[in-house]
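Think of the structure tokens as a kind of shorthand, similar to the way a musician reads notation: each symbol stands for something richer, in this case the local conformation of the backbone. In the example below we present two proteins back to back. Begin with the first one, reading the sequence and then the tokens, and try to describe in your own words what changes along the chain.
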Amino acid sequence: MRAWQILRHGEPADAIARVECAVPEPGPGEIRVKVEAAALGLPDVFMCRGSYAFRPELPFTPGQEVSGTVSAVGEGASVSVGARVMGVTAFFRGYGGLADEALALDASMYRLPEAMDAAEAAAFVIPYHTAYLGLLTRGRLLPGETLLVLGAAGGSGSAAVSLGHALGARVIAAAGGSNKTELCRGLGADLVIDHRSVDLADAVREATDGRGADVIFDPVGGSAFDQALDCIANEGRLLCIGYASGEWRDASTRLLVAKNASVVGVFVGAYRKPFLSDVHEALLEHSNAGRIRSLVSRQVAFDDVSDALSELAERRASGKIVVSME
């Protein structure tokens, strides 16, 4: 079968190559998915560089997010061959979605409605499950509160903007450059801040009459985390989603005490399938009603994976780039 594999660590153009390899066989609790579409993300870039938390033995196939049809099942799997699914692959074992067939834990795959497009489905589970667990389960976002989303034109950021709007929050989206800020307006952001042209914390305080943001969704980390803490409201919640900047930051407990603020970790992998299945169905209701949608900015052919990953590595992409296997 066709696959893209990371042969050595480095930038995507040097690290990844198209190869032919054997079709993997699912083990206990696993399924094999015939991939229809695979969404790319910064973790794929970090895996090329060898800087991600998961580092399978070289060579391996990356690609976390897929949609497709179950083609084989291992012992104990609950889904049937032929079922349409979307979710997260066994990329941590090196059998990711940038291939004709991918492996996945049965617990990491979810129902794919017939009406949902394969590209949208591939870009749905990680961004929207993360946004839901961050905003509702961990952040306790209430209608009318001010939500600040950092990295708002990215995969998880754009999902947080869309879901926050659907939940009745006042959404402030922070992104870099006119193309990305316009994209955020289209997702329902009430206010968009171009962090390249203004000071983020000053702009948020001005927009909230000095109060600051009640909930801050941060998939960026680094200096953006520091700026977010500088404009958090009294009793605000700063949600630590990821570190797209490449750097985690620590919060000053003195500042947290002074503002009655909380720094809250968000990790989808800590939750079990029954709860996440309920989350998934709640999100599908929002999707079916047209309140949220996956931000698929572009679809590329299988042969163009290396170029698309380079685009992500250089931070030129917005939304989700999806690889169409057809």
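Once you have a description of the first chain, move to the second and do the same.
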Amino acid sequence: MKQSLQLRLGQQLTMTPQLQQAIRLLQLSTIDLQAEIQEALDSNPLLELGDAGDSGDMTGDMTGEPEHWNESGDVTESVPQSVTESLDVVQTANDVDRAVDLQDAQMLDELPVDSNWEDVYDTFTPTTHGMTADDHQRMFENQSEGAESLRDHLVWQMRLTPFSAADLAVAEAIIDSIDEDGYLIGSLEEIRDGLDLDYEVGLDEVEMVLHRIQNFDPVGVGARDLRECLLLQLQALDKDQPGVVNAIQIVKEHLDLLGDRDANRLLRIMKLSLEELQCAVGVIRAMNPRPGGAVALSAPEYVIPDVIVKKVQGKWKVELNSDAAPRLKINSHYAGLIRRADNSADNTYLRNHLQEARWFIKSLMSRNETLLRVATAIVEHQRGFLEHGEEAMKALVLHDISEELELHESTVSRVTTKKYMHTPRGVFELKYFFSSYVTTTAGDSCSSTAIRAVIKKLIGAENPGKPLSDSKIAEILEDQGVNVARRTVAKYREAMSIPPSSERKRFV
């Protein structure tokens, strides 16, 4: 094969590092963005937080720069006279560090032997930028420990209970066999066989320790099935309370009839009136079938909204959350140390970091500008939701916003992922306002979110004795002009964690 040289002309899209940084910042959530900004502040001396009174936009303030830089990072204007005068005092940041070290060494030489460190050096308490003393007090008051697990809660009570050495080992084994819902998942024989003791423990002793643990908080923990769990909670109630005695008998003898919602047989067997049966069933419903869930709670996850929507003088106003996007600016002192036509290592270091700081601020400005444009377009489409609620939600897809703003769908997808909007109706993820749609009989489109809201409203207003089936709900929606199949109704109902009609039936 003969080798030859050929000249070809073509176009190719290149992802520059600056473009990659802008795309990465665009898809970050507020928490991740704040961590990214903090990392940039720690690594780049040319970046600093701006004060509330600084001029400029919300994301960054580039005023006070001593020089203007082109895209390649070269200097296009000379350093102002005010900056060059400051260079006569301290040439580089290293001179400042050396001066401070020299002053500290001199103070240490003059420090008497019997004096304290606080006599010479003032004590310093770290503070967060822009926070007052009241803010710090609230910050320390609001600090919470990690979520306590059910096992930790039970072990703490076990240590406060007088147990013998053998019973303590049995109690630990029982607590280890309790799941997150509070149920004992292992049999007593398995717990006894798993004990590492020098002598054998009988089943009666294991069961005795289990009964003591079942008196721990929360009530009902350590139960082996639902019946025992409900009985433990009911027996802890005052027997003089209306319906408690009947509730205990129903759970002990007729729990299967209660699960089948067979009110007629319960009335006949228990020989109760309808009011007495309703009272007893109400007491049972007040019990917690998963007592462990009351303790084993996960740590709360806080959501910081990126966009705030409010109505001002009859018009909806969209603005960025200033608390979620801190103001950044160029450090004028370090920027003033940069000298033109100086290729020293220090000067090159500062020039490179100045260019990185400029690109970082520019990427933040681009991110917030795109986020504000997309949020404004969403509000324009979903005014009905803001005014009237979920039932007025319009059908909206990513393509509609991308076409309106002349953005790519991937860009709209990135900017709406893990971004939240604070509205008078609550805090919602931007993705919440996008949904599929169903064509109505009139030829219009109806959002799936609006259909789910209608289904939830219909179920909320149904007769508890005769709940609406999925087929009946589909018929009602068809009468309203929305053509949905029964399986679609079932899918939306399950997405809202609403049980089927057979499980929603109540005693009337």
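Compare your description with these statements about the second chain. Strands lie at 47-49, 60-61, 307-312, 315-320, 328-330, 420-423, 426-429, 437-439, 445-447.
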